[in-house]
Amino acid sequence: MSQGEAAGRGAAKPQDQGWAWMVLLAAVVLQGLTLGFPCCIGIFFTDLQHEFQASNSETSWFPSIMVAVLHGGGPLCSILVKWFGCRFVVMLGGLLSGLGMVSSSFCKSISQLYLTAGLITGLGSCFSFQAGVTVLGYYFVRWRTLANAMASTGVSLGFTLWPLLSQYLLDEMGWRNTFLIFGGILLNCCVCGAIMRPIQLASGSLSQSAKPKEEPGSRAEEAQLSNGASPHHPTLQKHTKRTKCFQMLQKYLAFDIFCQNKGYQIYTTGVTWMMMGFALPHVYLVPYAIHNGVEERKAALLISIIGFINIFIRPLTGLLSGHRVFTGRRIYLFSLAVLLCGLSNFICVISAEFSVLILYCVILSIAMSGVGALTFQVLMDVVEMDRFSSALGLFTVLESTTLLIGPPLTGLLVDITSDFHYVFYTSSFFLISAALFMGLSFCALEKKNKLREASKAHLDNPSRYQYSEMSTEPKAVSQSPPAVEYITSI
Questions:
Q1: Are residues 68 and 176 in the same domain?
Q2: Which residues contact 65 (CB under 8 A, 6 or more apart)?
Q3: Between 20 and 30 A from 144 (CA), which of 95, 286, 321, 389?
Q4: pLDDT band at 223 (very low <50, low <70, confident <90, very high)
């Protein structure tokens, strides 16, 4: 065997071994730095209010913008990954995140925090997180499910460690110096990105993946050119721009799936509504505890308890939901987890004692683990995998909208009533109503599909439902057996 052939064969199987496990370790750290980071912002809520003389609603815009941009910047991240590759985008995200938090330490108004910590840091975290998840798909094939499950533990580690570190630095140095240190910590996303070097595939795979697909509308454009139309003709240029714009929206924001796929329509609507209340406990739990006399260190510990339990429960939930018994039924598990999230909020309304809040965090963490582990699995159940990335783009944009407006509107309600209980009432309303909507709608959709299949089978073979005499003659050996249909999703 020649050296060239040996090198080609060696490059053909870089996945699931060697450097791939270093990339997985980098992904764990990356998710802890990005997705885990917003959970600690509630610790600074009271200090920022006093510093800038801001209301609850004004202060809550800062974490809302950060979380909304983190989730809603997915389509832009996908475009950058396509142009520049995952490694560059992860490192760019690290630079933006660090720059945003360093700039935040010099802010003189709460509105400046919206731009620096909210927009810039949120966008940087989005780039690092989503590009880091994408690169795992290249490095892992056989062990891809395990790799994604292990990488998601980084979120739980972030939930556990960020609040403890934040409270310690806040007590020792104040919020400005803490934000400055956070900027340096988030720059470690660049180190994680450096580890995620571009994967070297076989030359055949590269040529196949690099071959551009024929895009819709290209034939129409070629037909106009063949008829004598100049490529610089104004009408043709406008048509080409509209076609490319439509293709871009179709690729990253699949409105056609939303209109045609009832399951995707129900799920996306339900999750978008759910997000109005899902993030509220993360933003307001620490201020609520401090407002009711809980010591600041103990209040910060509440968020860490949620993260610590997530470390163990989330992977177990993912493994359980992957069992074949739940194939096509994961939406009901998801709805049950959302319902439990909503019901758990009533514990905070009963009492604000530290022991009661610990019980609340335990139950909320178990429910949140189910929501976190099942969100994208359910989306894969209701959408074909070849359109999953497009469906995910619209899904994240819509949920980021409600993530953005939920906390500020609830903060305005708290400002008017001066009662933190309305945070948990509001959260419970959105979560419980979303859970009931998704569960009942999918149940009705499943029954409708079964009736449609039954009526179709009746039309195709009416004699099946009528009495008829059976022939006693043996059937021909050449007759093929009936086809078996496997239903794997709703």
A1: yes
A2: 114, 118, 119, 122, 404
A3: 95
A4: very low
